[in-house]
Design a protein that fits this description.
The chain is mainly β. 12% of the residues lie in helices and 31% in strands. It contains three helices and six strands, in the order H-H-E-E-E-E-E-E-H. Strand 2 and strand 3 (100-106) form a beta hairpin. The longest helix is centred in the first third of the chain and has 10 residues, at 18-27.
Length: 178
């Protein structure tokens, strides 16, 4: 049962402020526990032609990113990126494919299918452990805004699939070698 399923049919009521509902869900309200989770949005850098920027670690001949030694610039992605702290709500129940999950973001987040969602390790209060430990990386499969009748973006719904990425284990392996 999707948390939002009952909202889809009822947005014609212009009094209902979904941005506010989402904010209460994420950050809590007097009658609601905060259910947002801290994570990272990995946004790929682009040049002036909107092309992804290749990392200098790529092999001159094969053009493969360096996976033998850990590249501190791209983490083996082969492209340069920046990460930003985000708050999301994750819904695991709505999809049959267990490798896929649905994330919800607030209206102000700017997301494209080229970006990635990164889960990080949190303490029991939901605060990120430092230094940041990345636990899972998700490929964005589709990113859709949910708009109210009059066109205002109310929230983002992202379908994403877990990426098998060895770089999330970097910190672990690094400790073993030291
Ligand atoms: Zn690199």
């Amino acid at each position: 049962m999707s948390l939002f399923s009952n909202m889809y049919g009822s947005v014609s009521n212009k009094e209902l402020d979904l941005r506010k509902e989402i904010s209460n869900l994420f950050y809590g309200a007097s009658d609601e526990i905060a259910k947002g989770t801290v994570g990272l949005l990995r946004i790929m850098r682009k040049d002036e032609n909107q092309e992804l920027i290749q990392c200098a670690c790529r092999n001159k001949i094969t053009n493969e990113p360096d996976r033998d030694s850990f590249c501190p610039y791209c983490y083996g992605f082969g492209y340069l990126w920046d990460e930003y702290k985000i708050i999301y709500y994750r819904n695991d129940d709505s999809l049959k494919n267990k490798e896929q999950v649905v994330f919800y973001f607030e209206y102000g987040t700017d997301i494209t299918a080229e970006d990635f969602i990164v889960e990080i390790k949190l303490n029991k209060d939901g605060e990120p452990l430092l230094p940041v430990q990345r636990t899972k990386i998700y490929d964005i499969i589709s990113s859709d805004t949910f708009n109210a009748d009059y066109g205002r973006v109310e929230f983002w719904q992202i379908t994403a699939e877990r990426r098998r990425d060895w770089s999330v284990w970097y910190d672990v392996q690094n400790r073993q070698h030291n």
